[in-house]
Amino acid sequence: MPTTCQHTAHRGQILVIFAAATVLLIAFLAAAVDVGYLLSQRRGVQNAADAAALAVAHAVHSGVTNTATLEQIAAYYVEENGYDATPEITFSPDMKQVRVTVNAEVPKFFVGLVYPGDWKVGARAAASLEPVPFDAALLALNPSSGGIKTSGNTGIEVTGGSVMSNYTIETSGSTSIIADQQVNANDGFRESGASRIEGGMGTNPYAPEVPDPLKDKIQPPTMPPFPNNPVPNVGGSPQQCMEYPQPWGVNIYTVPAGTYSGGGGNCLTIQNVQSGNTLEFAHGNYRFNNGAGISIGGGNNGPIVLRGGNYTFNGGPGISVGGSTPDFRMERGNYAFLNGARLSIGGSANGNVLGGGTFYFSGAGSGILPGGSNSVTLNPGTYIFDGGHGMVFSGSSHLTFNPGHYEFWFRNGANLSFSGSSTIRLNGDVYVKMYFYDGSSLLTSGSTHFNLPSGEYYFGGNPPRDTCKLENSGSTWIGGRNIFLFFGPGCYLHTSGSAAFAFTAPTTSIYPGYHPGVFMYAHPDNTETFQWNGTTSMLSEGTVYLPSAKLTMGGASNGKVLRGQIIVNSMQTGGSTRLGLEYQQYVDTSIPAVFLIE
Fold first, then answer.
1. Where would a tag sit more exposed on the chain, N or C end, judged by fewer CB atoms within 10 A?
2. pTM of the model
3. Is the separation of the CB atoms in 285 and 266 below 8 Å?
4. What are the tens digits of pLDDT across the range 297-348?
5. Which residues form the domain of 49?
6. 554 near 129, Cβ under 8 Å?
7. Cα 44 to Cα 50: distance, rounded to the nearest angstrom
8. Residue 569 maps to a domain
9. Is residue 254 part of a domain?
């Protein structure tokens, strides 16, 4: 072939190859534009998904649970990031995690010439509510009122922990709130006067709310119904009222069982039982009708013993013990004091023993009424007071518990009351359950010192309101180990004078729904005010939990009040109160924080 023809052929082939390469290059450039834009939109859609997931998680933390509302929130944040797309949201069963998926159409520039299908990008994000530990020693739960308020010359000092109000912290006068860790509020600090707020690790007037750490960890106890009279009303053949002892010249005088009737006064009078002799009521059924009663007078030096059985006193004086009787015993049995009949113990008798079993008191004027300088020793049993006085210790009388388990029931204004210099003594391991219903209370006053038995003290039950209280006044000291105090709606604690507390909380479960470490708990429907007033001080270990009730401290309260945690609806201090609070963790407290986890 001629050379000229060969060159011409080569030039034609190169032009064809160049044209084909140019078309291919243009195609690659067009694809690069579309793919690059697609990738850039992938990043944008991911940002939209992230923002939507965080927003929905924050809404859930704020209490939003309606699915339609949460979907609207997610769609809003997707749109705010520039995408017209409907996000899909899913939740974990406990609502602690949310997953948002966003799929968005992307415009096609050149690729549509060769690819007619969908051109989309998708992204998925997951956010989680993760608790961040927050060592709250003092926590005011209410997010809309109350908060923590201080005035006068008060001071709150927290060692080892933090102070938190889900509402405001308001200080005035020359008050101070100081904590080793943080002092935070959710709705700001309101400071006036010479007050100061200091946190060793900082302060924050607009911190996130701290959820109630015990809301799902403790439940109110189920309050049992008040018992009816459990003592059988049995008697026997009629017996004659008389004075004992008769001059029989024997060592043991026996009062026969049976039914005694009188005209509203003492039926059996007992006095001058000589040393070495015993007067006893044989074990059996005794019934005292029409106000008949037993009077134990002076000059008794020998034991007087009720040997158990069933005893019913219907009206009248019941049993009256006076003088200096050294040994009066009611052995284990069933004793009913009805229509105001009572057990009165006076004088200087020091050997009075109630031997357990069941004691039931009802009606105005009924109860166990020691006075003077005598003492009463209880044995394990059930003691029921339906109206009347209840158990009232006055003067320098003493109540001693022998080892064992006890139940006490108080209703219709019957109280357990101590005044003067009366005291409680524990003779070994004792555990009690005390129930105070319908206006009944535990009252201490005077200059008394009480070491309460270990156990459970229930003031009122569920609605209706019961208006029961634990009241401590004067210069009394009341304390005890392994103590649980429950206050139903309408019931409260009130201290004044120079009263003091020293309780230690149970560390094991005492009823289904109890959280170990709580020694004072108010029902969620209880909105009363709990008051530490006067020159009150307290040294207790455990948690005070009043989720809907207000705690106030006034007067000249002082001292290290608590080693543990105070979790209340709101708190207020005044006067010259000094609250010392040493943080000890009984329940975890935390601040929920939202994190992207995917």
1. N
2. 0.83
3. no
4. 877 888 899 999 999 999 989 999 887 777 899 999 999 999 999 999 887 6
5. 16-133
6. no
7. 10
8. yes
9. no
